[in-house]
Amino acid sequence: MNTVIFVPTISSSAAWIFCNREAAFKNGVLNAAGKILTGYQNREDAISEFLAKQPAEPFALLRLSISNATQQFLAIKGWMVGTNESASGSPLWTIAQTGCIYLGAPDKTELTMEIIPVPAQKIVLY
Length: 126
Hints:
Blueprint: E1 2-10, H1 11-19, H2 21-26, E2 37-40, H3 43-51, E3 59-67, H4 68-77, E4 80-85, E5 91-95, H5 97-103, E6 110-116
Antiparallel strand pairs: 1-3, 2-5, 3-6, 4-5
């Protein structure tokens, strides 16, 4: 069984990540604060929290799947923590820059992307 990390992002950024995988992971994926990758432990939380920001267009949900052995290696090194929570209490995975660089190699993690449609916005004209 694999450990899966869900990272919501705008579609254009997701495309850049796929084309420049090693550079993206070196920057913590999207050059996150402190170059630390933060992703959700389940798909539903990732989608609902990103939708709460009211995106105007469809967005991407990156899915990083790593083996349990790799996850344990990262945890032992102190590069990956699974005990953090988002502001609304959703469980998160947090990966330090060194762990991200390690995962940047294509043989260390499977990276897929799903496009999430955004519900139509109600426009009120006055």
